[in-house]
Design brief:
about 160 residues, alpha+beta, Aminopeptidase, seven-stranded mixed β-sheet, about 35% helix, about 35% strand
Length: about 160
């Protein structure tokens, strides 16, 4: 199946939150409504990218990339705060597509690196490692070449 990765719209947020299930509630003390409100705000902010994967007009996954400055990294760091895949979707293909677009977005926004919470599930962790992420303790990370500078470097 062919997947389209695109910027999320406000109308996608409720489905995104529903698909996220416990992933959102497990990380903070907020409710799903709080998460939905925050995601709606992030859709419009230049220092964030909310991406969705779509197939046959159905939302099959989503990812949230937030950008922050980092003196340690020597520039900006992108954090993939959330990546979810619908239970009825091909987890490998959707994850790969979302990560590729999140990495492209981070490079275009001038990020020197991208990090994410390390997945607990070994199959999910393998998907991230396939995209060049390495284990950094509680996080996984990957360095990036600036947009237009050729290939990407792995950490």
């Amino acid at each position: 199946m062919e997947y389209t990765i695109r910027a999320a719209r406000i109308t996608d947020i409720d489905r995104f939150v529903a698909m996220s299930g416990e992933q959102i509630g497990a990380r903070g003390s907020g409710t799903a409504l709080d998460a939905a409100d925050l995601l709606r705000q992030l859709v419009y902010l230049p220092h964030a990218s909310v991406l969705v994967a779509e197939g046959r007009r159905e939302l099959l996954g989503g990812a949230v990339l937030a950008i922050r400055p980092s003196v340690h990294a020597g520039g900006y760091v992108g954090t993939i705060d959330l990546l979810v895949v619908a239970p009825n979707a091909d987890a490998d293909a959707v994850t790969e597509s979302l990560l590729e677009e999140a990495l492209r977005s981070a490079a275009n926004k001038g990020c020197a690196a991208v990090e994410a919470p390390r997945p607990i599930d070994t199959a999910e962790r393998a998907r991230w490692e396939h995209q060049g992420f390495t284990d950094l303790g509680p996080l996984m990370g990957r360095t990036l070449a600036p947009a237009g500078a050729g290939g990407r470097r792995s950490r």
